[in-house]
Amino acid sequence: MIRGCLTGIYENDVAGAVGTLTLDGGDVKLQASITDATLATGPSLNGLSLSVIKPASFVIDYNLPKKDVKFQFMNSVRVMERPLHMTYTHWKNENRTALDGTLMIDQAHKVSANYVLDSGNCKLRYSYNPDGLTTVEPSYDFGSNAWDLSVTRMVHANDVVSASYQSSSKVLGFDWRRITSSNGSFKVSATMNLDEPSKIPTLTAESTLNF
After folding, report:
1. Which of 73, 103, 194, 208 fits as disulfide partner to 7, beta carbons 3.0 to 4.6 Å?
2. Highest mean pLDDT of the ranges 11-25, 34-48, 114-128, 197-211
3. Taking a C-beta distance cutoff of 8 angstroms, is the pair 75, 84 a contact?
4. pLDDT tens, 82-136?
5. 105: nearest Cα among 133, 121, 85
């Protein structure tokens, strides 16, 4: 089965697009992805990547313009009868490796960590979802000594609103996302830099079509 996804992005009168085409061959999927850089100046190989995916097991991405390969491996174990999901990611050209882990304490609580090897950069995130509708996620970046906070709320069956704040950049953000049907969705976002005197928000609209 072949599945496609095309997202149109509109930001301050600038339009772009992101697209994926996935061939589902059973356990392993083949995927081709393009970014808005590919469509902005006409068809080209800029922003084109090819992927081999086995869900919950591994992802291998090849970026054609950069001739770079990214390896990602996933695994899950149980720690004190609680699931721990781990992800290992390596970028070949950058010679950079990252480790991600998420510990599910219970249905309402989980803790996530991201660590980049040889950098000392570690990010810790706590997620609290008491009712299945509202999620509060504070996080702390030990590398930059900065904290972030996001709050997400499912308003109706198809509507999700969220707010976020990044202390390092002092950017305040708001999102509203609606799943119109099984074939598509759209999202409207607004971001504001509180350090700027004008404090004029940047508006972004995205419309996604699945086929």
Report:
1. 208
2. 114-128
3. no
4. 999 999 999 999 899 999 999 999 999 999 999 999 887 899 999 999 998 999 9
5. 85
What does the DSSP assignment read for 38-102?
HHHTSS-STT-EEEEEETTTEEEEEETTTTEEEEEEEEEEEETTEEEEEEEEEETTTTEEEEEEE
CB 34 within 8 A of CB 18: yes
Give DSSP secondary structure letters for 130-170: SSSSEEEEEEEETTTTEEEEEEEEE-SSSEEEEEEEETTTT
Residue 183 CB contacts under 8 Å (≥ 6 apart), including other chains? 209, 210, 211
- pTM to 2 decimal places: 0.83
- Domain-by-domain residue ranges, the chain? 1-66, 70-154, 156-211
CA distances from 108 to 77, 102, 131, 191 (A): 19, 13, 8, 28
The CB density around residue 110, as the number of other CB atoms within 10 Å, is: 20
What does the chain come to in residues? 211
